[in-house]
Amino acid sequence: CWFPPDSIPWPWLRALVEKEHPDAVATRPGYPDPWPALRRRLEGLRLLTPGDHVEIARMHRMVASHLRPTAQKPAAPSVVAVRISMPSLLKAVAATGYMIRRVFEITADPRSQVQWEMTAVLGAIPFLLAKGYTNSLTKNLADAGLKFAKTVLSSRGSRETKSLLDTVIAAYHRITDSDSSSTERHRDLCFSLECCGTLARQWDSATALRYFNDSLIVRERLAAADLNNATLQGELVCTHVHLYGVATQESDSAMAEREMHACYLLLHEMKERGLQLDQQMTNLYEALSK
């Protein structure tokens, strides 16, 4: 369970009890399932308290405080023990790998979108991103979080999606800041910002505009530093196209005209410098030239 340290999924706990203490939850013909009574008992003693979802409990802080000093002792896996042992790179790789795999499984098959696990993954991604692992691990997890955001939007709404996107973008910023001389790191950041902007357009143009403008600032700096790089110039054009999309969505004709004019100037300067335009850029240039 690579979830936040105080989150306990009830299905996971039941499976653990069935494995470690099978007699405690054994069902007998003619008798009710003993698990609901055991669960009520734990909640009644306040050992576990209600969480953000009906299938997730939270460990009482006094229980967590009691377990923490002995968490390194060999025992049944506990979320507290996981948190304490996380500095191990091997376990960090395992945790991140598991989370990435589950994200891809959940996003690939809508039938696997169990709501309690969605809640757990939403908590686990920021938790793992905040651990300060290697750039490679952080980027892989941030990429998964970006992919997961589409599923979150369709099943949980915009508020949780925006929170996840902001967390993911903060991770990309940390990666970029740690290697500020790398053009590829900045390009990755811009691509991620524009993915966020594209997703945000589905619920709030202002949020989308913020993401696209943040990308534009970086794209302009990269393009200005290497005027003969067709890739960087073309990516700047694409960012203006994204902004044009927001303008048309908001019926802002003045902004739309500005963005198309910016595209035309960039493409014209690329042609003047003899830079190769791909077919899509060529079509856009010809349309804007009319």
What structural class results from the helix and strand content?
A: mainly alpha
Tell me, briefly, the overall form.
Answer: elongated
- For the terminal residues, how far apart are their CA atoms? 59 Å
Topology, number of strands: 3
Which residue ranges are poorly predicted, with pLDDT under 50 across at least 5 consecutive positions?
69-87
> Could you tell me the strand content as a percent range?
under 5%
Count of alpha/pi helices: 13
Sheet of most strands: 3 strands, antiparallel
Order of strands, main sheet, comes to 1-3-2
Rg, rounded, reads 25 Å
Oligomer: single chain
Look at the structure and give the mean pLDDT.
83
Can I get a quick summary?
The protein is mainly alpha-helical.
Give a description of the structure.
The protein is mainly alpha-helical. The protein has 13 helices and three strands, in the order E-H-H-E-E-H-H-H-H-H-H-H-H-H-H-H. The chain has helices at residues 10-20, 34-44, 61-67, 79-85, 89-108, 115-129, 135-156, 158-178, 183-200, 205-225, 230-249, 253-272, 279-289; strands spanning 7-9, 48-50, 56-59. The longest helix is centred in the middle third of the chain and has 22 residues, at 135-156.
